[in-house]
Structures are given as structure tokens and as C-alpha cells.
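Box 4.2: Ligand-aware structure prediction
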Amino acid sequence: MAISLTLPTIQNWSCHNCGGCCRQHAIEVTEEERQRILSQGWTANDGTPSGNALFERHGGPPWAKRYQLAHQADGACVFLDERGLCRIHAKFGEAAKPLACRIYPYAFHPAGKKVTVSLRFSCPSVVANLGRSMNHNADEIKQLARDVVPEGYERTLPPALSANERLDWPDLLRVVDAINATLATTDVPITIKLQRALFWLSLVQQSRFDKLSGARLTEFLDIIRQAAVEEIQPSSDSPTPLGRMQFRMLTAQYARKDTATDLAAGWRGRWKLFRAATRFARGTGNIPPLQSVFREVPFESLEQPFGFPAESEELWTRYFRVKVAGLHFCGPAYYGVPLVEGFQSLALIFPATMWIARWLAASQSRVQLTHENISQALAISDHHHGYSPIFGSFGFRRRVHTLEQMGEIPKLIRWYSL
Ligand code: SF4
């Protein structure tokens, strides 16, 4: 099957064997992959368990068993060795690994007659833009696309534009291109670019599109994008107490780390999470450390300006452009939500990540952010975005909606960039 791909050419990537993905993710395997791994004959001599102990059953009814790779006591994949390398890869080569491992950190999403490619920023090499250009990786990406993109992908319906409007693929991609163009501007900081996009998308949300298509739609988008340039000025508005409370609850979800070990903790683990959620809602006293990288510091200590390193502008612009062009924020890639809502949710990852970055800095007794704090925080928050089921839940979506209706999203973006 010949697949026409749109590559995120502003991004570089090669695997640097950090093993991070093998410590964070649950790797689901198909029955065919399970049988293949069983036939590889792993034993204690290889440093792994053998037979069925290589897998854990999860989800689904007894007649539709699903399996994932088992984990070591620290949550790492059962095949990860002490040097941080994959034992399957070392013994049988790249192609012998489960498909989920080979695809990471790429993500493939149908976009009309093409397939657009995005990347997961939970990988530190993606965040740091390390490795070969996407054009260099094109052959490898094409091979992965052949393995993962289903036949008939061209018939996939486009994501809804808003709760009430749907466009066909060419028109929806015109809106996506317009967001990308807003983000690609080089004369204003990312905070202003995000506010501009949010502003004109709110106009899109209120518009009817039954007579707007093709060149007329492009003209309309140009006009409202220009209106956003004139309307959005640097402001000094601060988030309200209610907005801050909703935001803390949302950010707590980004700051969590749900390894297999955490999930196996059952009711004890859930009770711990419930207690942490209550403290995030109150927002007083110390922040409960949700991962080992965080220390308990007062909530209040993160509300002072921590600065914004100049080099983080490039990272943020690249992040949002890769996610937008890769359709990694709406439709099938993001819990089926419409494009406008998906972008509001994506924009909130900026203040959430900056809050987490402040927490990392404060955990090291600093009141100044470094680019490394922001990079690490982005790897933490993007791990969940579009992948943790809670982000697609009614409660999470209602929280994003509430923040949008209250006009809090631009204020949060500004506040946590100071
Ligand atoms: S199978 Fe190999 S690549 Fe996949 S998660 Fe395990 S150690 Fe990592």
C-alpha cells in the first residue's frame, strides 16, 4: 500500500537508547507478537522470566484476553537490561520487538488522502530535537506507516470542527494550516501566539460554515487571524482563585506518573491519589510529591515569577507546530474531541508544564527556571496528553470547558510564563 506522508520537517529525532520509554509505558502485544516472543525461548539465563511470566493480562473479559509485557519491580519492561538496552533488540534485532516499541515516538494520523506524522514529546530526544532530520528518517517512517496504518485510512472522517460544525477534509486542513501559520510567526513570543490562536478559534466556534468553503474559508480565516493580531496585546490580567483551583486540579493529572507498579497498588494507590487530589483542590500547605522527581514545597512558592529562558521559545513553538500539523490534538488522536476544544486543551499544556517546571526548580531550592526544567516538565506532561484515559473523561473535558468559558486560559498562559 502506497501511503503519502506529511512529515514534521521542523523536528529531528534518533533514538539515543536512554531506555526512558521502556520504563514509562505499558506495551500491549498482539497474540501473534506474544507467540513470537514465547518462541524466542527466554529463560533466567537471559536475565528474564520465561514463558507466560513474560506477560501480564489486562482489561477485557475472560473470552477476549489482552496481554502486555510484564514489568520489573521498579516498573521497567521485563526485557530492559541493567544498561538500559532492550534484550529482544540485542538478541534478535529491531524487527523482533513488538510494534508498539518500534513505532514510538512516532504517531500516525489520517488527514484526508494523506497520513500526517507527529511525535511524542515524552521522549527526551524529541524534546531536545536530537538526531537526524525527518527527511533523513523518511524511509524508516514509511516502513512503520506500512505496518501500522490500516487499509482504507482515506475513508476516515475528519474530526468535528466544533460541537455543531463539521467540515470536509480540505476545509478542515485549511483551519489546521491557519493555526500552524499563527504559531509559525517569529515576531512575538509563544504566549502571544497561543492567545491569538485561541482568540480567532473562539470566533470560529461561533461561526456557521454552510456557505464558507475553499477560497472563501481561507479569506475568512485570514480576516479573523488579522483581527487577533490587532486584538491580542500583552496584558496584566491574573487568573482568578476559581480559575487557579480548576487549573491545579487539571495540572495534577499532568504531573502524575502511573507506572505499572502504581496501577498495581489497587485501592491503596487510589486512596493516595484521592488524598493528593484533595490537597490540589485546596491549594494550601505543601504540594504532595506525585513522582520521585518532586519534593514537597508550598503551593504558594510556585506563584511567584520564575522567569522564562529565551531558548525555551524554540522548544514551545516546535512542540505546538508538530502537534497541530500532526493532528495530535483532536479527533481520533485525542479522545474524539472537536478541533477547537482540542486546541484549547492543547494550549493548557503550556501553563500546566510551566507550573510543573517551577515545581522541579523549587524541588532543587531554586526560584529561577532553567531550560532543562521546562524540557523535563514537557516530557512529563506530554506523556499523558492523548494517551491517559482520564484526559478524555467527562470531568477533564468539563474542566477545560469551564476554564475556557471563564476566560482563564489566556490568563494562565501569561501568569506561568512570567
Ligand atoms: S520490549 Fe524492548 S523496546 Fe519494548 S519496552 Fe521492552 S525493553 Fe523497551
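In the box above, the bound molecule is iron/sulfur cluster. The chain has 17 helices and six strands.
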